[in-house]
Amino acid sequence: MLLKPKIDWHGTISKAVVMLLVFFLATAAQGEWLLVVVYLGKDYLRAWLHTTDSSLNGTLFTAKTVPLTSVTAVLEYYRLQNLHMYLALAITTSFIMFYGMAGGFQWYFYIKRRHKAYEWKCQPDRWLTLDNERHEIMLGSFNMLLGSTGSGFVSCYIMNGGKCSLYTSVSEVGWTYLFLSAFALFMYNEAVSYYLHRLFHYPYLYRKIHKVHHRYGSPTAFSTVAMHPFEFTTYQVVLALPAFTVPLHAGKYFHCNFGFNSLFFDNLHGTLRKKDRVYGEDVFGGKGKQAGLTDAKSE
């Protein structure tokens, strides 16, 4: 009689929680939440902030119609009325999400369940030094400030009549386009995450930029956005492009497993980690080397 394999519900739930945490931390970093909120509730926010489209009697404000002699006039010309309100909302909420979720995760797992690390941690015997913990929090905080400031500017611009390809009514594009575009957007995010991540693992970019993120050999939730600001900004800009052009997972091994949410592109390009290959910080290319042919520091 065949016995049914026992399902590890605790492990499954833990992984699901981690994935959700990473998703919401990434959302907080990118500021997507603010973009969606302000677009869906633009009429209410406009009334609350006294914000309107940058037009007067159907004529767009330009340098010829309005002299740019004050900060207010400059902001209005660039469709950035009430910018301070959007920046305050974006920065405050992003930091609450970042410290709240990452801090809660840190307390529950890394403090309360530290003595049971073998149950939930893939590297139960490795921990960040206090110096690296402080470093990842400071760097992550800087990137959060960078990302939320950008989202504040973009959201303010859109709310004041700036161009954006988001829509709120399915009737504008139809249900077929809605479902196809949702799948296309997911694949776009996967492709961008995979190819940019792999690009940053090329020797020069890895040593100059991406290695900052790999400083944290045993990452925590705060490590999610602890990376070189140039790398962080690159992800934010490229991932945000669809909102303006079309209607609308970090691993423990070096130089492989570049995908974030799925294994599709790793399987497609053969960069999924294999047990019979050797990987290390000095083994580039994503496919490792045969055992015995390299003396690289394996991970």
TrEMBL record:
The chain crosses the membrane at residues 85-111, 142-162, 174-196. It holds the Pfam family FA_hydroxylase. It comes from the Eukaryota. Residues 184-255 form the Fatty acid hydroxylase domain. It is found in: Membrane. Keywords: Membrane, Transmembrane, Transmembrane helix. GO terms for cellular component: membrane. PANTHER family: STEROL DESATURASE. This is Fatty acid hydroxylase domain-containing protein.
